[in-house]
Structure formats: structure tokens, C-alpha cells
Design brief:
With 454 residues, this protein is of the alpha+beta class. 50% of the residues lie in helices and 19% in strands. It is found in: Membrane.
Length: 454
């Protein structure tokens, strides 16, 4: 299934927003964690200075911390905050270390320099450790000692986790706002494309001739190309109509000459050759009329409306004056409010062929019914004649197909083409008695747009 351009852009934008915020959240969390670690290192550095500054000799002359750091966690076993001083042969530790010794790496430290380590603790966690090498003054023996202060990273990790948890709801709100903003931007940004579709429909229905030149500069080239295509199409259709009309009119003079020749033959008593010539000329005339109808419909936009009832009455009144029309009864039920999207002359031509054909094949009655079906008008023309075989119904609607030896199906073909030109249909079926032909045309009241003949 192909997604619409609007939906694809919206989904792509939403995915980009979510991905960008996820990356931003990870970056902010890492930045916060680094900040927290720097604060912890600064705190440990102060405590390391206090530990080193408190180093002195006790009453027995041994090195010891004369003033232990004030933080009570140093006296609480396994509290997570520890100090340790390596005197070479003596190891001083905070009470919080209990029986654990910080595994300081054997690295060489310049005097006064601080190294930062991450060491394992006795609980399986990690200790952030600051280590400094200090040369003692002469009063303390002038030896070198390694002093270290360590802090468990559990609190640092928890702070980072809490920060991320607090950040997620705000990121979700921001993501929703950005996605909505993206939808709004797409709605207004793609409106010119929707306007192109609306104007194409307006051109198709005949409300306007071209798309126009008031689109944004990114869309205007498309509108210009569509307008140029319409111009080229109309020019080509116009040339084709003129060629077809010229060809059809070119046949009319020879046909008139043939009809005159047939009349002269008839006057001399040669009725059979005259009838044959008249039959051939009549067939050619029907083909010429058909081509003229097609050339008139080609490329035409239908906007006109025609009321069905007066057109039917006009056609029936004419056919009633013919020998076949006066010999049958007419049962007509056509509401006065039915209108179709078709020119009145085209409607008369389409219905005329159907009604004339029904009068010629009816035994005693022709029935005409019209009704509204959804967004269309259905006009049924039925005779009570013998009908036709099922295998010839489709053949009857083909170009030049014959219903019998005395009549041509060409008129039905013309009616079908007129219906198709406005989006309608023509169907033929055997009824209980005779043949029923149904012409379905767009309902003018439903606002069905006109269409162009391809």
C-alpha cells in the first residue's frame, strides 16, 4: 500500500524528532553525569587535603591522623566514603573501610600530583578514587606517603538515573509539541499541492480553463507544465475535430449524389438497384453522422443541464408522426424534476436513437421510464417486440453492429458514446417482453462534474 506524501513526510518527521530527542537525552545525561563526577572529584579533593593536612605523630611517636576528617561517613563501616594512607611499612585507613584495603595501582606519582582511579570496592561496586603522593616534612621523617580518598559511584549512578527519569516526561511533551508543529507545517506547506488537485478538477469540470499562476514558486513550474499540456491537448483535439469534420462533410456531397442517382434509377423503374444504392448511402450517412457526433464530443467539457421530460416529449411527438411511431402505444412516466448533466441537443440525440429503435421493433407498445438512482438518472426505454438473442446483446453496442437485416445498431453506439462522454453508461437487456435499453446519466442536482472525452 502506497502512503500519501503528507503521511510519509509526517511519519519521517516524527521519527526524526524522536531520534533527535533520544540522542539529545543521551547527550544531556552524559553531560550531567560528567558534571556530577566533577563535583564529586572536587569534594574528594578537599577531603584529601584534609587527610594529608591532619597527618602527624601521636604520643608514641607514630604517624597518625591527629584530626580525622569531620564527615561522619568515614567512621561508619562500609558507608561508601573512605580514606587510606600508605606509609610504606604502615597502612592507615578510615574505620569505614573496615578490613578492606584500597587496591591502588603501582603508578609513579610526582610530588603533589593527583591521579583519579576507578577501583573495585568490597561490595562489587566501583569507587571513584583520588590519589596523591606527598613528601613528608623533616618533622615527620621526610618519607613519601600515598594518600587516597574514595567515594562509591552508586550515588553518582543513581543521580544520573534520576536525571534521565525526570528528563523523559519533558522530552515526551517536547516530542509531541514538535510532531504537532510538524503536522501543522505540513498542512500549510502542502496546501498548494492540494490546490493543484482542486484546480485540475475545476478544469476538468469546466469551472476554469487553466490552473493559473498564483502558486508558490516551488509549485508554479508544475502548474505551468500542466497548463501547457492542456494547451497542447486542446490544440491537438481541435485539429482532430476539424479533420474529422472536414472528412465527414467531404462525404456528404458524394452521398447526396448517390441518393440522387438512386432516385433517377427508381424513376426509370430500376427499383432494386435504387434500393441497394439507398441502403448503402444510408449506412454511410449514419457513419458520417456518428463521426460528426464523436468529433463534437471529443475533448469537450460538459457543464450544461438538460431536463429529461421535455426532451422525451419532443422526441416522442416527432416519432409519433412516423408510420412506425403511430402504430404503437406510448407509456411514458418521466418526472418533471429530473435533470442530467448533458447538453439538451446531445440528450435528444442519445434518446432519439433509443426511442426510434424501440418504435421500429415494438409490437404494440413502447414504455419509457425515468428515475433517480443515487447520483444518476436512469432512463429505461423498452419495447414489447421479440427481443434479441443473449449472445448478440454485447455485439449490438459495437461500432456498426446490426440488430437485424433491416436496422443498424449504429444509433445505440452513438448513444453509448454520448453517455460515456459525461461518465454515464448504456446497457441492453432482454425484458419479460421485448428489449430494454437503460441510459444512465449523471444527475445534475448531485453536482457531478463534467468530464472530458478522451
Amino acid at each position: 500500500m502506497r502512503l500519501s506524501l503528507r503521511l510519509r513526510l509526517a511519519l519521517g518527521g516524527a521519527l526524526a524528532v524522536v531520534l533527535a530527542l533520544a540522542i539529545a537525552s543521551a547527550a544531556l545525561t552524559a553531560l550531567f553525569a560528567a558534571h556530577v563526577q566533577r563535583r564529586a572529584e572536587a569534594e574528594l579533593s578537599v577531603q584529601l587535603d584534609q587527610v594529608v593536612a591532619a597527618l602527624g605523630r601521636d604520643a608514641d611517636g607514630r604517624l597518625a591522623l591527629q584530626t580525622p576528617p569531620a564527615d561522619p561517613r568515614f567512621d561508619q563501616p562500609l558507608s561508601g566514603l573512605y580514606w587510606q594512607i600508605d606509609l610504606g611499612d604502615t597502612l592507615l585507613r578510615s574505620r569505614s573501610l573496615w578490613d578492606y584495603v584500597l587496591p591502588l595501582p603501582p603508578d609513579a606519582l610526582p610530588d603533589g600530583h593527583v591521579h583519579v582511579h576507578r577501583l573495585p570496592d568490597q561490595t562489587g561496586g566501583t569507587l571513584l578514587t583520588l590519589e596523591r603522593s606527598v613528601t613528608l616534612p623533616p618533622s615527620l621523617g621526610e618519607g613519601r606517603v600515598r594518600a587516597a580518598v574514595a567515594l562509591t559511584t552508586t550515588d553518582l549512578d543513581q543521580a544520573r538515573s534520576d536525571f534521565l527519569k525526570e528528563l523523559l516526561p519533558y522530552n515526551a511533551i517536547l516530542a509531541a509539541a514538535l510532531i504537532v508543529a510538524g503536522w501543522v507545517q505540513l498542512f500549510f506547506g502542502l496546501r498548494p499541492l492540494s490546490e493543484v488537485g482542486r484546480r485540475v478538477l475545476a478544469v476538468r469540470s469546466g469551472e476554469q480553463r487553466r490552473l493559473g499562476s498564483d502558486f508558490p514558486k516551488e509549485v508554479q513550474p508544475l502548474a505551468n507544465e500542466v497548463d501547457a499540456l492542456i494547451d497542447a491537448r486542446e490544440a491537438e483535439l481541435d485539429r482532430a475535430r476539424h479533420r474529422a469534420a472536414d472528412l465527414a462533410h467531404g462525404f456528404k456531397t458524394p452521398l447526396q449524389a448517390l441518393m440522387g442517382e438512386a432516385d433517377r434509377l427508381r424513376q426509370t423503374g430500376q427499383t432494386e438497384p435504387a434500393a441497394a444504392i439507398e441502403e448503402i448511402a444510408e449506412a454511410m450517412r449514419r457513419h458520417v453522422d456518428r463521426e460528426l457526433t464523436r468529433s463534437r464530443l471529443a475533448g469537450r467539457v460538459v457543464k450544461d443541464k438538460a431536463t429529461v421530460a421535455p426532451v422525451v416529449q419532443q422526441i416522442v411527438s416527432v416519432i409519433r408522426r412516423t408510420p412506425t411511431g403511430s402504430a404503437v402505444e406510448w407509456d411514458i412516466v418521466v418526472p418533471d424534476d429530473l435533470q442530467v448533466t448533458l447538453d439538451a441537443s446531445d440528450l435528444a440525440e442519445a434518446l432519439g436513437a433509443l426511442i426510434e429503435n424501440a418504435s421500429r421493433h415494438a409490437t404494440s407498445q413502447v414504455t419509457i421510464r425515468a428515475s433517480r438512482r443515487d447520483a444518476a438518472i436512469a432512463i429505461d426505454v423498452q419495447d414489447d417486440g421479440p427481443g434479441i438473442s443473449a449472445d448478440r446483446i454485447e455485439h449490438l453496442q459495437k461500432r456498426g453492429a446490426r440488430a437485424d437485416e433491416s436496422g443498424h445498431g449504429l444509433g445505440l453506439s452513438i448513444s453509448a458514446e454520448i453517455a460515456q462522454a459525461v461518465g454515464g453508461t448504456l446497457s441492453i437487456a432482454n425484458a419479460e417482453t421485448g428489449l430494454r435499453v437503460t441510459l444512465i446519466l449523471p444527475d445534475a442536482r448531485a453536482g457531478v462534474p463534467g468530464t472530458r472525452r478522451p
